[in-house]
Design goal:
It is built from no helices and eleven strands. The protein is mainly β. A hairpin with a 4-residue loop joins strand 7 and strand 8. It is globular and about 40 Å long.
């Protein structure tokens, strides 16, 4: 069993940056692919970024590609998502997800474990 807790959300002005953290407990991060997803009001949950359990593969949604970075710290059991040049359309609840021996797929159904989410609001 893996418990995930996201932190780092908040209110940010457009053009700013934000770093979201996902702390895991229960199992070692070395075995898990980590993904970030988001859900805006009235919209379906969508993929943001993911890293495979080996760390060799990283995938990004087109909407954040080039201005975001996903990383994982196996010692601290923490996954980090940093998004630069934030836009109002980045406003959403951001969720961390994990899947044992996952390959960093963008499909939410590939992930078994989920955090409760953290709100990110980008003001224009």
């Amino acid at each position: 069993q893996v418990q995930l807790v996201e932190t780092g959300g908040g209110l940010v002005q457009a053009g700013g940056s934000l770093t979201l953290s996902c702390a895991a407990s229960g199992r070692s991060f070395r075995e898990f692919a980590l993904g970030w997803f988001r859900q805006a009001p009235g919209k379906e949950r969508e993929f943001v970024a993911a890293v495979s359990y080996t760390g060799r593969t990283k995938n990004y949604a087109d909407s954040v590609k080039g201005r975001s970075t996903i990383s994982s710290d196996n010692i601290m059991n923490t996954a980090i998502l940093r998004i630069n040049n934030l836009k109002p359309e980045d406003t959403a609840v951001y969720y961390c997800a994990a899947e044992q021996y996952g390959l960093g797929y963008p499909q939410s159904e590939k992930y078994r474990y989920w955090g409760q989410g953290t709100q990110v609001t980008v003001s224009s």
